[in-house]
Amino acid sequence: MSVIFSDYEARVKALNPSKSFIVQAPAGSGKTELLTQRILSLLAVVEKPEEIIAITFTNKAAGEMRERLLRQLRQASEQLEPPELDHEKQTRELARAALEQDSRFTWNLLRQPERIRLQTIDSFCASLVRQTPLSAGVGGALTVEEFPKELYQLAVGRILERLEDDADPLSMNVQSVLEHLHNNISRLEELLVDLLSRREQWLRWFRKLPCDMERIRESLSESFERTISEEMLTLCSFLENSDYRLIQPCLQSAHPYLTQVDQELANNVSQLPYQLPEAKFSDLVHWHTLAQCLLTGEGSWRKRLTKSQGFPRAIKEIKQSLEEWLQNQPVEHAETLKKIAKLPLQPNFEESSWKVLEALLQLLKSASDELKGVFRDQARVDFSEVSQRALLTLSDESVAEEDNLLDLRHVLVDEFQDTSHGQFELLETLTKGWDSQSGKTIFLVGDPMQSIYRFRQAEVSLFRRVQQIGVGQLHPESLVLKQNFRSQSGIVDWVNQKFSVIFPALENPDIGAIGYSQSESHHQLLEGNAVEVHLLDKEKLSAEAELVAQLIYKTIQKHGVGHSIGILIRNRNHLQKILPHLRASGVQFKAVEIEPLAKRQIIDDLLHLTRAAIHSGDRGAWLAVLRAPWCGLTLADLTALFGQDLHSTIPHLLHQALNVELSSDGTQRLQNFLKAWAPVDPQLQQFGLRVAIESLWLRLQGPKLLREERDLLDAESFFRLLGELDQKKWLLPDRFDEAMQGLYSQTQNAEAQIEVMTMHKAKGLQFDTVILPGLDRIAKSEGASLLRWQEQSFNDGTSSLLLAPIQESGQEQHPLYSYLQSLESQKANLESARLLYVAVTRAKKYLQILGSVNFDNADQPKAPNAGSLLWRLWPHLQEEVLFDDQTKNQSYAEKALDQRDLLLRIPQSALKNEVSSQVNSKPNDLGDEETDRFEDTAATSMMGTASWIRREIGVQIHQTLEQISEDGLENWSVEKQKGIQKKWLWALGQKGIPNKLIPAALNQLQSIIEISLGSEHGRWVLGQHRLEKNEYELIVDSGKGFKRYIIDRTFVDEHDQCWIIDYKSSEPMDSEDLNSFFSRMEQRYKSQLSGYINLFNLSEPGRRHRCGLFFPMLGCFHEIVIQ
User: Fold this and answer.
1) How far is CA 86 from CA 90, 99, 445, 1070, in A?
2) 295 - beta bridge partners?
């Protein structure tokens, strides 16, 4: 029997350091302070602070908790006046007790705060993997990718490549799924990538499946039949015999009239039993019949019964009695009946569906294996992989001693309602063997009503599971907090009133149906309306933006500048009208991860600039650069320059510009641009992306063209990104879109009174006034999934799995797939109610809700879009609704775009005295000093526009030398030389090198390879040796992140000396002798090779290491002696 404690009693009990608890803490209940108090109470009894670990889900939360703990410890140590509030006094006493223990055991926490272990779940997993790489199955250092889509694509690419190998058993499986999708390979790729990103969800049950496919098929059919029976049992529990004895005679009375409109339904009605249908599969057809008679096409209870449903005036009284019953039925029961109505009458898979499902299961297993191979080859992983490897680590019993986990006795988890199955499994493994007698405890805090991260695999049912059955052998006591210390009573009362009916009346944690828990307000009612709902006319497009600005103005006017305002939206695109209007109105605000960096004009221009710099064949990027503000050529000049030749690259055509007649303005602009562009290639090779692009932007007077202050902040963010890409060696243009993910435009108003963010981002925050615009907008629906699954929990405590493959292209969905999809939709709808709860409970004093609706001819509002957050509130809105007639009836003119603003350009005055007089000056003409600095591009046999060609030649040289050494010198035949020439031809063409220049490039490549193979040094470098490696990759933890190094070739010679060799496609400048050239190269690259030597000495301390440079264009090797 559960005991209900008062809020005060629950908080006191939670501080007992010898017991485990799971605490349900609604919005504003002070859970962060409770966690702080719990840690302090534990610090007062443990022998070492390392016995405690607190796990959060964000770095921000971990940082805030650490700061709060240290602040309490500092204040307790300074003997300050005792605080006035009771809960603050209690925290101070706990902090003093912790300091006494600190002094007793000489922890010195205030000087060594890192001994208090506060970590995110991701950092905890990463630390386990990093400290115990062998147990985690890791061969070296790993980089965790925040946006790992590219890794999934590589894995899927490997899978699809196997389609061509008829001898590969997987080929048939890929073919089966591909045929199911009508050979749409791009769709298959997209769907597989999606499944790999969510593999934490399906790998758990994947490992539990029987090995034999027939057993899997039998198990799935049994699960299907049992699921349907349990759903019918739910219906039986609410549809009592007394209800059915009303329904069945009514429908039988309608039978004669039904025969005139729907003979098939009439036949089914005649077959309805006199007693309530049972919860067994054979009675499913009767439940189908009841659903067809009682539900609308959308799946809600019928409000009216008409002649077309078999209820004419002749049976008016019977019709009214059944209508009255329907009006009193809860929505949840209609949902259940609707789901059952979509289920097939046979639980078995059709042969075609089973064939696809069987192929999919094999495909997923192989895709998961291929992904592990990608992780290994790339030395990059995603967070899910880190979590899985951490679990592997914890499963190794020897790890506890290695990782200091033997000390661990107390685990605290914040935001437990957002735990995933994988994270829960980690917690189970971490606390394996713990029980109530061991003195070890868990303390889990969260609020299932605020579980809103299903897209991150959060599973709210785990919270209820722990409340009911615990974790392993630990059975934490369940506590529920009630007091709300955040919001005034007007808001708390409103939330209680609305959400007690918005949240489901019947709980079903498996689908996220969580009941509402009432809160009690600690604060008094404030003057004015606590909550106001503003309904706007949807046809007035700018009305909402105008109203938001008005509400901000009135709020600041009434409450002053210290009154915080939060504008919270469901999706970022809901701000398309609002943010421009606020800026135009002069409203200063801080936007928190709202506007993606890639959508900013300044970034679009810089992206084109970067793409053009690294890929001469990107015609679109080059045209955008020449049209952009820093050059500003008119369309007429661009047409004159490039309109006659649509095949040559833009850089090539620019060097014929002397023969093209341009406007005088265009001539001057092009001269200025070419001079600024000249150093780009040498700077790219010497200094990398960031230096090259940022200095080019400065030479093009980019800062002078910025329209607003945040443009400069965004440009700085972009240049930082280029610096990161330099370290990762990401030089491919198609990687930029991926790299830009997760980056947002910044604002300088760090302490702004007004903040704009998504509802998800606002979790854990609070504002004096909260404005919620766009509640009539609906969220983007979930796309199709290649496979649907659901782990069903049954009434006897057991569970089983349901699976269904996607429908064949152009065909109807399989009923089981539809059923599982309806469960996902139901989960999404239930989560949207929780999201709305999170949004409204951010308000401390006032809440403003905005939504746009259509109005009928009587000027009455129509119901909003189904599925919107306003739709959730709609049936329960009353006196708080405001109709702003001025706003509703007023139309707001859209600001017209001034045609003169269509092309922003550098003014003519800025061009004066900035350029040379020659349009056709070589883009890489450098001064003597710069020529020496950028030697790699200064003196070769291909000058002028060939600097970008040289880079591509260098790439081909490296790849060819690698292939020669891999195949063996003795195997480098004439046939292979012809084959490699075809590869060169294709590769150079793909890089946009003009056809007329390709023969010269091919001749140079052939010459370089012949020189390398014909020289004694070249044959020694490329010859067969022990322990030889090409493109050898080293990944090093620098303390500030992981750095990656690529060594062109390394091997051990006959004297057991390890050689480290880098290839350099450089040659002496004019009048420079070979010794001077080697001296210059040694000066440049000695520190780099010295670093390589140090790394090799660490891994092989007993072997001598030597290094040097090989110059393929000379056929010479030069050793660099490292002392």
Assistant:
1) 6, 20, 22, 84
2) 301
Q: Are 532 and 879 in contact (CB under 8 A)?
A: no
Q: Which residue has the tokens 């063997």?
A: 433
pTM of the model: 0.73
Signed CA dihedral, 578, 580, 583, 589: sign only? positive
Instruction: Give the CA angle between residues 244, 247, 251 to the nearest 5°.
Output: 135
* 901-937 burial code (b ≥16 CB/10 A, e <16): eeeebbeeeebeeebeeebebebbbbeeebbebbbbb
Joined together, the tokens standing for residue 861 give 């509002």
User: Which pair of tokens denotes residue 715?
Assistant: 């440009």
Give the C-alpha separation, 1052 to 531, whole Å: 77
What φ, ψ does residue 805 adopt, rounded to 5°?
-85, 160
SS3 1028: strand
List pLDDT tens digits, range 457-484.
889 999 999 999 999 999 999 999 999 9
CA-wise closest residue to 752 among 1004, 961, 552: 552
CA distance 601 to 999: 40
Tell me the three state secondary structure of residue 294.
helix
Which pair of structure tokens corresponds to residue 420?
């995933």
Nearest CA to 15 out of 39, 44, 35, 38 is that of 38
**Range scoring the smallest mean pLDDT among 312-321, 335-344, 743-752, 951-960:** 743-752
What gap in Å lies between CA 867 and CA 780, rounded to an integer? 10
**CA distance linking residue 624 with residue 224, whole number of Å:** 57
- As a 3-state breakdown, the chain gives helix, strand, coil percent values, each rounded to 5, of 55, 10, 35
Q: Determine how many CB atoms are found less than 10 A away from the CB of residue 397.
A: 9
Burial of 964 (0-12, 13-18, 19+ CB in 10 A): buried
Distance, in Å, from the CA atom of 431 to the CA atom of 283, rounded to the nearest integer, reads 46
3-state secondary structure of 752: coil
Q: Which residue has the higher pLDDT, 752 or 251?
A: 251
Question: What does the H/E/C string look like for 467-486?
Answer: HHHCECCECCEEEECCEECC
Phi, psi of 992 (to 5 degrees): 85, 15
The pLDDT of residue 111 is above 90: no
Backbone angles phi, psi at 511, to 5 degrees: -110, 10
* pLDDT at res. 733: 57
* CA distances to 803, 826, 1102 from 460, in Å: 21, 14, 55
CA distance 314 to 309: 13
Residue tagged 């009841």 (tokens)? 290
Could you write out the DSSP letters of every residue in 627-670?
Answer: HSTTT---HHHHHHHHTT-SSS-HHHHHTTGGGS---HHHHHHH
What 3-state class would DSSP assign to 950?
helix
Alpha-carbon separation of residue 969 from 200, 962, 1012, 1114 (angstroms): 47, 11, 11, 18
d(CA 242, CA 441): 50
Residue type, 789: W
Distance CA(1048)–CA(959), nearest Å, equals 10
Question: Hey, what are 1058's tokens?
Answer: 């390890």
Order of strands, edge to edge, in the sheet holding 881-883? 590-591, 754-758, 565-569, 767-772, 843-853, 531-537, 881-883
User: What are the tens digits of pLDDT across the range 869-890?
Assistant: 999 898 888 666 776 544 444 4
SS3 119: strand
